[in-house]
Amino acid sequence: MEVVKRGMGHGDLSLEAFSQVWDECYSQVLYLPSQGRYTRANLASKKDRIESLEKRLENNRSYMTKDSKKAAKLEKKLKILLGGYQSRSQGLFKQVTELHEQLEQTFVELTTFENLRQHEVGAIPKRMESLTEDVVRQTERERELQKRYSDLQFRMSLLQVTK
Question: Residue ranges of the alpha helices (H) in the chain?
Answer without folding.
Answer: 2-8, 15-28, 46-162
